[in-house]
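Researcher: I'd like a candidate sequence for this fold, 357 residues long. If you have to choose between options at a position, lean toward the conservative one.
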């Protein structure tokens, strides 16, 4: 397929109200040309609303959206250089695969021989070469997903918008389609903005992820940065599943848990927080390990409530004095613990992180 001109997307102070309800609140983000960005967040946080405003199926209440440097607010979808793949695919079931893919080209009055050529080309790209004459009602879910993708790509948009593109597929097909999406993105070099509520999918696919919560973007960053240095408690919890241990900043770069000093934290992790700041320590399960009480005091004591084996890893669940739960992932080769035992959970402080409470 011929390369399209590259366009980035700038979202500049967008707010969207539905009556009195705020669906999007003063969101700004810049997506670079050729980037694969995912908008990740829980149901109802405003992901689809944001995507619909970029594609022209909804208009912002205030703020500006630029595609390739030009404002698109007020333009109809087909004049925006964007194309959208809808979650439910929105295909015409009684038309053939080829007719469905040709739809956008016919709307744009592209001439017949050119349409035929580009549809053929697209069928090849989406791996449905022999399916052109098949009706959409007679193909599988995964194939329909590829037809929806082909129908959007065939108009050669600069920006492809995907709303939960793999939401309706089973796990195995989902993994397979994730790999295909990534390959198509690499080969075509277009800008992709996808929406998902599946954090693993976002981490696998994206150059950068925008984590949304209640109409706001809490962090827009590379996957590793979101995982290692979440800026809010919500991001720490939503991306990757973290242990959040409540603490307070003590004197001289220490942390206090229930008034007891933990260990010194690296100064760059404490940052500029003053003594007395209420924080949560973000500890991923894979850096947490258990030891007998007294052996390693630089941790927290917890009662073991569960030991679960799952292949090479054993999951050890502990309960802290304040009732909160900790999960450690340790080698299954380590001698197992007994429920009810009190142990120390400790971790490499340089690999943990802090968020404000
Ligand atoms: N047309 C509409 N009229 C009124 N309210 C709407 C409309 N569309 C969406 N909303 C509201 O705006 C908020 C954001 O909706 P949106 O569809 O963007 O969420 P989402 O993040 O895509 O959620 P999901 O993951 O469930 O698809 C929700 O509270 C929703 O009820
Ligand atoms: Mg949605």
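Model: Candidate sequence:
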């Amino acid at each position: 397929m011929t390369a399209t001109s590259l366009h980035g997307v700038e979202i500049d102070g967008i707010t969207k109200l539905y009556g009195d309800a705020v669906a999007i609140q003063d969101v700004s983000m810049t997506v670079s040309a050729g980037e694969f960005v995912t908008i990740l967040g829980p149901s109802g946080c405003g992901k689809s609303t944001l995507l619909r405003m970029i594609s022209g199926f909804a208009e912002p209440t205030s703020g500006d959206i630029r595609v390739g440097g030009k404002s698109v607010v007020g333009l109809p979808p087909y004049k925006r250089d964007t194309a959208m793949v809808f979650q439910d695919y929105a295909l015409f079931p009684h038309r053939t695969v080829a007719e469905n893919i040709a739809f956008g080209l016919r709307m744009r009055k592209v001439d017949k021989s050119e349409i035929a050529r580009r549809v053929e080309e697209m069928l090849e790209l989406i791996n449905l070469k022999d399916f052109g004459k098949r009706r959409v009602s007679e193909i599988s879910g995964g194939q329909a997903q590829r037809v929806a993708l082909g129908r959007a790509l065939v108009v050669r948009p600069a920006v492809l918008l995907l709303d939960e593109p793999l939401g309706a597929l089973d796990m195995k097909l989902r993994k397979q389609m994730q790999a295909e999406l990534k390959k198509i993105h690499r080969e075509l070099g277009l800008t992709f903005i996808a929406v998902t509520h599946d954090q693993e999918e976002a981490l696998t696919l994206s150059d950068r992820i925008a984590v949304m919560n209640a109409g706001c973007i809490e962090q827009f960053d590379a996957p590793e940065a979101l995982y290692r240095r979440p800026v809010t408690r919500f991001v720490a919890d939503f991306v990757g599943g973290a242990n959040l241990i409540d603490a307070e900043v003590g004197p001289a770069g220490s942390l206090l848990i229930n008034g007891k000093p933990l260990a010194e934290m690296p100064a760059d992790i404490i940052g500029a927080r003053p003594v007395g700041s209420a924080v949560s320590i973000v500890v991923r399960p894979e850096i947490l390990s258990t030891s007998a009480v007294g052996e390693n005091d630089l941790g927290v004591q917890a009662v073991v409530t569960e030991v679960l084996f799952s292949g090479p890893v054993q999951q050890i669940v502990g309960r802290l004095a304040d009732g909160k739960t900790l999960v450690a992932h340790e080698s299954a080769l380590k001698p197992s613990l007994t429920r009810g035992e009190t142990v120390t959970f400790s971790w490499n402080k340089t690999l943990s992180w802090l968020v404000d409470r």
